[in-house]
Design goal:
With 371 residues, this protein is of the alpha+beta class. It has nine helices and 17 strands. 35% of the residues lie in helices and 21% in strands. α3 packs antiparallel against α4 and α4 packs parallel to α7. The chain is elongated. Bound molecules: zinc ion. Zinc ion binds next to loops.
């Protein structure tokens, strides 16, 4: 699979980035593929060529926003012993501390702060799961509640989520009232970073549990969660949909790295059905009560047991959302041109790892910053 690591480059590439943007705009206008035609902009041809390939071929792009400097594999030297990457065309040396078992560096994209290093790593063979964990997301206060029906064990993960959201909602409200828009944006980014870190911790823990229990992971189908009454209220006060998607993406790629299967189930009534007898019970705040068999449980634990016990929905095991999204989109779409939505948080500044949604099959980012 493909992983992307972000390395802070500590260089001022503003001149090169400006030239790159000019070339991209030129490419959108003329659809030229010859680097001779853009020689006068003064960017190294190995980089200019990449920009032309991205922007000249894609007829859908009308408006060029941010353009990265893209360096292809043949323009990258790797010294695995020194753990250093060298880009001759930019005279840039990048020390790295990420995993050294990658097969090759596919490409590097450079923006004003980071070098996004995309590497191929070998896939681990898929494990044959002995059981399935059920994951109930963004329930009453937690990021996720996980249950293993085989052992009866329940994990409540990411308890801080509710507190974080309350805190930031209050700050946002005040700033909005005071019309401090710049500060508001900053605070929003900060909140994204905090949530992302929490999602990383929770997804890491879920995959850890799955590995230990030799289990696969079952999640509720997300598309349906949006229309699911159970979650509407939580969306209003709590985690919003990008956070759900982010947690899902993190679980998917972390699981894939360990060969752990992830699959999806229909979310209908997971919080209403009794996980013991299947009847519709009564859910009140954090508790679930079945009038048929007398089963009493924490509401989210009951929901996660239901998720674990359900059959995979259509599409079956193995097809991940990340794969599906790629099928839908154009693989030629440059990052930052059309795929960046308001739901995607800004690039990381403090996080240990980060995720970016983009063009490559599964782009996963981890920041290569010594702490
Ligand atoms: Zn029951």
């Amino acid at each position: 699979m493909i992983l992307t690591f972000n390395i802070k480059h500590n260089r001022d590439f503003s001149i090169e980035l400006k030239k790159a943007k000019q070339i991209a705009e030129f490419a959108v206008k003329t659809h030229t593929l010859s680097s001779k035609n853009v020689k006068h902009f003064g960017l190294k041809s190995i980089i200019a060529n990449q920009i032309l390939r991205k922007y000249s071929r894609n007829k859908k792009i009308k408006d060029v926003k941010s353009v990265e400097l893209t360096i292809p594999n043949q323009g990258i030297h790797v010294d695995k012993e020194k753990q250093e990457i060298y880009i001759p065309s930019l005279k840039l040396t990048l020390p790295y501390i990420f995993r050294n078992d990658f097969e090759k560096v596919n490409q590097i994209e450079i923006d004003d702060r980071y070098a996004h290093v995309s590497v191929s790593v070998p896939d681990k063979p898929a494990i044959e799961p002995q059981t399935w964990l059920g994951v109930d997301r963004n329930t009453t206060g937690h990021v996720a509640v996980v249950a293993n029906p085989q052992t009866g064990k329940v994990w409540k993960l990411g308890k801080k989520a509710e507190h974080i959201h309350r805190k930031y909602r209050e700050i946002r409200r005040k700033l909005q009232k005071a019309k401090k828009h710049r500060l508001l944006k900053k605070i929003k980014n900060r909140e994204s970073t905090v949530i992302r870190d929490l999602n990383h911790k929770v997804s890491r823990k879920i995959v850890e549990i799955a590995k230990k229990d030799s289990a696969g992971i079952k999640l509720e189908k997300l598309d349906d969660i949006r229309n699911n009454k159970k979650h509407t209220k939580q969306f209003n006060y709590g985690l919003n949909s990008w956070s759900f998607h982010q947690l899902q993406n993190f679980i998917e790629y972390k699981a894939k790295l360990e060969g752990i299967p992830v699959t999806y189930v229909e979310p209908k009534n997971t919080s209403k059905e009794c996980s013991r007898c299947g009847s519709i019970g009564i859910r009140e705040a954090k508790s679930f009560k079945c009038l048929n068999c007398g089963h009493v449980d924490h509401a989210d634990a009951n929901a996660s047991f239901n998720t674990a016990l359900r059959p995979p929905s259509v599409g079956g095991i193995g097809q991940l959302h990340a794969d599906r999204d790629v099928c839908k989109g154009s693989t030629d779409t440059p990052r930052g041109a059309t795929l960046r939505t308001t739901e995607t948080p800004e690039p990381p500044s403090f996080s240990e790892e980060s995720m970016s949604v983009g063009i490559t099959k599964e782009i996963v980012a981890e920041v290569n910053e010594p702490v």
